[in-house]
Amino acid sequence: MLAGSAFALGRTRATIDSQPMHALLKLISTDFDGTLFAEFEDPPIPLELQELLGALQRRGAKWVVNTGRDLSSLMEALARANISVEPDYLVLVEREIHCHRDSRYVGLEEWNGPCHRLHTELFERVRGDLPRLAEWIQARFHATLYEDAYSPLCLIARSNGDMDAIHQHLEEYCRTVPRLSVVRNDVYARFSHDAYNKGTALGEIARRLGLHPRQAFAVGDHLNDLPMLSREHAESLAAPANAVPAVRDAVRRQGGYLSPRSHGRGVTDAIKYYLAGGPAGELNFNNDPGRMRLHN
C-alpha cells in the first residue's frame, strides 16, 4: 500500500473511532454494480471505502449490499474484488433478504417466503400474456428474451434507446395488472411484484433492527435503486457522479448528496459528508472537491 493511501486510511479510522455512536449512521445501504463496485478499476472497491465501512461496522452500524444480482454472482464478484469487509445483510435480485451468520448468508424466511409465494401467484396471472408481449418486442427490436427463477419475462436490449421504448410499453402493460412492476437497470429488465423492491427490503431490515429512516443511508446509480433512494426508507441519500439523470434528480430533489466522483469514491465522499453533519456540517475541500477533511 502506498504511504499516502495508508495515511488516508488511518485518518478515516481515526475520524470514525473518535465519533460518538449517536453521531454515526447506523444502517448503510449500497447498490453494488456501478456504485460500490466498478469492475475495471483497481481495486474495484476503493480501499478507503472498505476501511470506512469496516470502521462503521466496528461501531455497531450494519451494512447492506442492495443489488439486482443473485447470491452466487454477488459472492463471485466480492471474491474477485478481494474485499476486506463483509456485508451484514444482502438484498438480492432487488427483493430477497439474506443475513450474515456464522460465515455464510442465510435467507430471511419470514420475508423471503411470502415474497416467493406472491411472485409465483402474480406471474401465473401474466403468463398467458407473455407470447403477445414477446411478439411486440421482437417485431420492433433486437433483444434477448428469457425466463429465469426470478421472472417469467427477462430481457436484454441492444441499447438504452431500445430499452426506453420497451420499458415504456411494459409499464403500460403493468398498469393493467394489479401489483405488477418492471425493474430496470441499464439495458436489463424483468417483472416483479411492486411490494418487493430495494426500498421495501431496506425498510424491513431497518424495522427488524429497530432503526428509524433518519439513521439510514442509501446510495445508488440506476433506475432499480430509486425505491431505496427515498426518504421513506433513508433520510441520508446519495448518488455518485456516474448515476443516471433520473437518480441524480431524485436525490437532488430530496436534498441528498451528489458526489463529484464516480463509483466507490463517490460513495466514500457521501458517507463522509453525512458523518460530518450533512448540509449543517463543516466541510473543508482540497483542490479535488471529492477529498474532504472531517471535523468533530
> In DSSP terms, counting alpha (H) and pi (I) runs of 4 or more, how many helices?
9
State the total count of DSSP E strands: 14
* Span of the ends, CA to CA: 28 Å
Strand content: 15-25%
- Percent helix, as a range, is 25-40%
Counted up, domains total 2
Roughly how many Å is the radius of gyration? 20 Å
Low-confidence stretches: 1-8, 282-296
**What's the name of the CATH homologous superfamily of the largest domain?**
HAD superfamily/HAD-like
Q: What CATH first level of the largest domain would be assigned?
A: Alpha Beta
Broad structural category: alpha/beta
Description:
With 296 residues, this protein is of the alpha/beta class. It folds into two domains: 3-94 and 197-294, HAD superfamily/HAD-like (Rossmann fold, 3-Layer(aba) Sandwich); 130-191, no CATH class. 39% of the residues lie in helices and 22% in strands. The chain is built from nine helices and 14 strands. The chain has an eight-stranded mixed sheet with strand order 5-4-3-2-1-10-11-12, with helices on both faces. A hairpin with a 2-residue loop joins strand 8 and strand 9. Helix 1 packs parallel to helix 2. The longest helix is centred in the middle third of the chain and has 18 residues, at 109-126. The chain is globular.
